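sry for the spam today, last one i promise. struct tokens for design, 110 residues
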């Protein structure tokens, strides 16, 4: 079963910040990590990820830097202090939202 784009849209930023809180990653790594950890449910396209990362850069939640790995230049992203604070807020917001949805659906405690 696929998850609708509308449902995914509200949580993509939180998922990306979560991965970057663990370690810096470049774009393709982010896409693959999301896909792998979600067992294929979250299959982002570059056209979705990069505008999100650029918006996060503008907010100073993440920063990009270039590094060379095995002769190839890659643009990595790392979370900044403001991004860590935003992630804490987003996780609290998610817990509240999830609890409310579960309560309405009768799924709490399942």
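last one done:
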């Amino acid at each position: 079963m696929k998850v609708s784009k509308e449902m995914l849209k509200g949580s993509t930023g939180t998922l990306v910040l979560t991965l970057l809180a663990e370690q810096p990653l470049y774009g393709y790594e982010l896409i693959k990590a999301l896909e792998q950890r979600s067992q294929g449910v979250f299959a982002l396209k570059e056209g979705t990820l990069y505008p999100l990362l650029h918006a996060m850069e503008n907010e100073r939640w993440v920063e990009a830097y270039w590094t060379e790995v095995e002769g190839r230049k890659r643009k990595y992203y790392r979370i900044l202090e403001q991004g860590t604070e935003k992630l804490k807020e987003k996780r609290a917001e998610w817990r509240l939202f999830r609890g409310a949805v579960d309560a309405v659906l009768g799924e709490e405690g399942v």
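Residues 5-105 form a domain with the Arc Repressor Mutant, subunit A fold (CATH 1.10.10.10). ok im logging off now
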